[in-house]
Amino acid sequence: MEKQKIIAISGSPRKNGNTETLLDWTIESAVATGADVKKYNVCSIRFSPCKECGACSKTGECIQDDDLRAILPEFMAADKVIIATPVFFMNMPAQLKAFIDRFQCLWAKKVQLGQPLRGDSKRHTGYLIAAGGTKGQSLFNGLNQTIKCFYQIMDIEFDEASSLYYWRIDENGAIARRDGAREEAAKLGEIIAATDML
Fold it and tell me: For residues 51 and 123, is the Cβ–Cβ distance under 8 A?
C-alpha cells in the first residue's frame, strides 16, 4: 500500500511550544502508522509576504525567489496537510498568515487563469491543530474561517471533525499537563496516515 505523503506546518513563533508539541505527537503517530511526513516551521522558512504585485495573475507563479518556491509545490502534492497554530487575537499569528497569503499565485492560477492546481484527481485532505489561552466558545471562529477558505481555494477537503482544538492552553508546556492531549494527537496521526479509499 502506498504511503500517505503528509506536509505538516507549524505556525507558532514559539519553537517547541504547545501547538508544535501537539503537531510533533501527531507526526510521531502518523510515521509509526506508515506515513511519510515532512514538517516545516514557518518561522524557520526564508520568505517574504505577498507584495500584491499582480505578476502571478499572468503566469500563476510567484516571482519572489525564496524558500516558498520549492515548498508550495510540495504542499500541493501532499495527500494530507496539517496546520498547527496558536490563537493570536482570535486568529493565527502573522507569520502563518503571511505564509498562507503567498498561495495567492495558486489562487490566480485557478481562478484567473482557469488552470488546474494539480495533475491528479485524488482527494487531498487538510487538518487543523489549534490552542488558545481563553475559554470563550468563539475562540476559534476566526481561525476556522481562514483555514476553511484557504483549504477550499487549494482544493483541499477540511476535516474539521478530526481536527484538534484546545482552550485554556497558554503558558509554554501547558499542553503536556492536559489530560488526554497526547492520546488525542496520536489518534489524529493514525487518522491522517490512513489511506483514503476514494
Answer: no
